[in-house]
Amino acid sequence: MKKEETSEIVLKITLDENRIPEKLSWSAQDGGIVDEEAKAMLLSVWDSKNKESLKIDLWTKDMPLDEMKVFFHQTLLSLSDTFMKATQDEKMTATMKDFCAYFAEKLELQG
Known about the structure:
Layout: E1 9-15, E2 21-28, E3 33-38, E4 40-47, E5 52-59, H1 65-87, H2 90-106
Antiparallel strand pairs: 1-2, 2-3, 4-5
Helix pairs in contact: 1-2
């Protein structure tokens, strides 16, 4: 019988007295990442039983607003790429990419 392999991703969140994130770090030993600092994170998981997505969105209180806008833009672009890989739906992927360009234009993000 083949031994089951597992991989672990660890998130550490340091909270202040009001339970606001002060520090975020993550580790993914398989990827060579150990206690890497982050200022924001978005985590989504699919609950197949209830047919809904569950999410955790966190950012530190010192996350700069301009970086948050870039973070969202890059996340939307990444989601477009992931959507294409998962569905092979070129038409909707192009629509998503168009929205990403619109998003960047409206926020005056540098390309």
